[in-house]
Specification:
single chain; 4-stranded mixed sheet; 606 residues; globular; 25 strands
Length: 606
Amino acid sequence: MKSVDLKRMTCGALAAGFVAMAGVALAEPSHGISMYGEPALPADFTHLPYANPDAPKGGRIVIGEGGSFDSLNPHIGKGRVPWMLRIYGYESLMGRNWDEPFTLYGLLAETIETGPNREWVEFVIRPEAKFADGSPVTVEDVIWSHEILGAEGSHGRYASTYAQVEKVEKTGDRSVRFTFNSDNRELALVIGLRPIMKKAQWDGVDFAQSGLDVNPITTAAYQIDDFEAGRFMSLKRNPDYWGNDLPLRKGLGNLDEIRFDYYADGSAMFEAFKAGEFNTFREGNTAKWDTQYDFERVTNGEVVKSVIPHKRPSGITGFAMNTRLPQFADWRVRQAMIEAFNYEFINDKINGGSRSRITSYFSNSVLAMNDGPATDEVKALLQPFAADLTPDAFDDYDLPISNGNARDRNQLRAALDLLEQAGWNVEDGKLVNADGEQFAFELILKIGANEHQTITDIYVPVLEQLGMDVTVTTLDDAQYRERTDAFDFGMSYYRRSLSLSPGNELTGYWGGDSANTNGSRNAMGVVSPAVDAMIGEILTAETQDGFKDAARALDRVMTTGRYVIPFWFDDVARIAHVKELHKPEYYPMYGDYVFYQPDVWWYQED
């Protein structure tokens, strides 16, 4: 699954025999389901561990947003939709506990049942589950929702899942079964997370073309109350929400109103927050957090600064090198590009040295490759592909560390040595190959990506000092998307978030078949039998330990492949908010993720 991002850390590893028994147990209705092993919370749990069941109801939260919107339907490819509608505006048959890995508990469904090999999944809908207009959620609503999401015009993520459904059938007044046509253990969980909509509301309406004309009637605690495109979106809590006493929702959805005000740019938004026009602000710039939050509302105690840790994977953020080009086909060249990137100096100039370095794709989490040589378990997984891996794939791999000065000659020498080994030599100040061709490439950036431009301004002169010819091109959003979709670049900014429950999405990220599929997320052009095999191991693992070993092996292959020059990430969230907004003292492993504020917070005056 995607980065909505989920934790397995609270679950212990299970022996193979126990797993086999767990598979049989899931052939009977259960209150929850886990990708590996069994759910951590018992059938009689009263509330989620990070929720405050005694939180008062009331108050409002006002959040600043950038951009605009022209649609209220987050399930189709057409239009711009407020991101919060998918998160807070819809419910699914199952819901997550964000304090354990990919594990789901009944939301609209009271039970879930699967076949012994998860070749089918069956849900029984709760009799109390209702839409906001008071009408019950029916099997027909569930079947129609899946059919329309799998149809042309919906997001591809829905269609690709539905293509793996052989049939859907009503098996009782409140029960529905999905039978699959592929061997994919994750499908039972993915199906449980699809949004459920009211079929009758869409009779005679073109779902794929809907915009601002249809205000959806859903089952969620919040409904759209009022909006004006480009200005605001207001969600109001339904006082008659059917799930108020459900353990999965107890202590959540505490605020009467969630309002989003739209601003033209980030600077205007920050000034509006300082002036009190909205009451919470999530800060992504650590230097700004340390130096610019001394305005009056902070010093007089009206605004509180909260730091919330997490254990989510760092994901990968940095400059991706296009290995489809001959310049970047050799791993030694890619390592030379990493050597030339003076991380310590750049991090200090931009962040005051305060942000954490990305050391691997799953760093900061239990799925990260271990320090030092590969473990025996990871070695066993990778050994069949040893000939296709970099020479140090099984060894201790660390990123280079500079002396922190603007020019580190040791790193430059290391870069030149690697380039020479790869067949590039400096002649008359130019880095050339045996045919006398200069090492040249184009680095593309988005217009307005100021931080990326600053990094480029520091980095490119170092590459030019090595004798490279680097063209930096800034493009508007449409041009940038067109170029990156066609892989028409030498280097580009790349960001890929990862969760604690990676799954089928990895094939689209780095699977070999995606390397030459225009528009895929495989910007680097990764084609690796080891990567494909490790993704397969992740998808078919039946134990916690097996899953972790496969993820760590994938992390090791991708990291030692040197496809991206890594930047930094935040292992905490920084939120400034009015003192009347409160949160529980216990933080889930996912920390402040998309659900956390405002769903877990409450409003209470002193």
